[in-house]
Amino acid sequence: MRLEHYRGSLRIGCVKYLNARPLIHGWPGPVVLDHPAALCGMLAEGELDVALVSSFEFLRNPIYRIVDDISISSDGPVYSVVVAHDSGTPLSEIELDPASLTSVALLECLMNLRGWPFRGTKITADVLSPLKPGGARLLIGDQAIRFRRKFSTAYQYLDLGQEWNDATNLPFVFALWLVRRELKDAEALGDELRTLRNRNLEKIDQICANNEEFEREFCRRYFTRNLRFSLGQREKAGLQEFANACGNFDLIPKRKLDLELV
Asked: Using one digit for the tens of pLDDT, what is the confidence trace for 219-261?
């Protein structure tokens, strides 16, 4: 079965951030592009058949099949999931970007692991506006990249990918392809998504050169140094460790992950 089999028939969603480009570029049919929380809602309601969404969506609602060997992960600094804050200010009250389920849960786990008090508040200002004096803000995806470019060294940045790696010595899985169980030919779809990922990684310089917002060298560094696009044994171990942490801190019921892979 080829990609063209799905043209116009598969309802597929993907996060609209730069980090997903190597996984969706070249898909031959329509794609719903949105932020992670919105896509999770559409997938749960049956408005999408498959979506690249927050890993936390699977942890709290493990009813989906997972496309094997594909994720958006980091094994160290991820660069684009950070808490921006003033130097020397305790991280206690943090403005949260409501677009990401996974990053909010990850932040709560990390704060608990460190024994730091934590209270999340909803962002009321523009995400790219300056912080309040002594404030802190969780930023994800392209908004995090834009914020770091806009304010540069004006703030300190707590990289959540690095923090997780320091705490667990494991990668962190930010996003997965989740597939509704009623979708037919899911195994073939998994093969096609892996083939698409492989093709895009082989021509990553071309994908970087075609980006209109971020310069080529930044994109290449981001795709090759900060991000991982596989879902191997270490990533799966990291996902289980995240599930354990979420269970320990009452974000989800405690459970051993049962991954149905396609």
From this structure: 999 999 999 999 999 999 999 999 999 999 999 999 888 899 9
Which domains are seen in the chain, by residue range? 3-75+171-248 (3.40.190.10), 84-168 (3.40.190.10)
Structure tokens at 45: 């309601």
Write out the two tokens for 57. Answer: 């969506």
CA–CA gap between residue 256 and residue 84 (Å, rounded):
33
Confidence of residue 8 (pLDDT cuts 50, 70, 90): low
**52, 13 in Cβ contact below 8 A?**
yes
Query: pTM of this prediction?
Result: 0.94
Instruction: Please tell me the number of Cα atoms within 13 Å of 197 on its side-chain side.
Output: 23
Instruction: Return the axis-axis angle of helices 233-248 and 101-114, rounded to nearest 10°.
Output: 70
Alpha helix (H) residue ranges in 152-232: 160-168, 186-202, 204-209, 216-221
Structure tokens at 84: 């921006």
Task: Tally the residues of the chain.
Answer: 262
* Nearest residue to 158 (alpha-carbon basis) of 54, 227, 228, 81: 81
pLDDT, tens digit, 9 for 90 and up, residues 76-125:
999 999 999 987 766 778 999 777 789 999 999 999 998 888 788 888 77
Long-range pairs for 165-169 at CB < 8 Å and ≥24 separation?
165/74, 165/75, 165/76, 167/110, 167/113, 168/238, 168/241
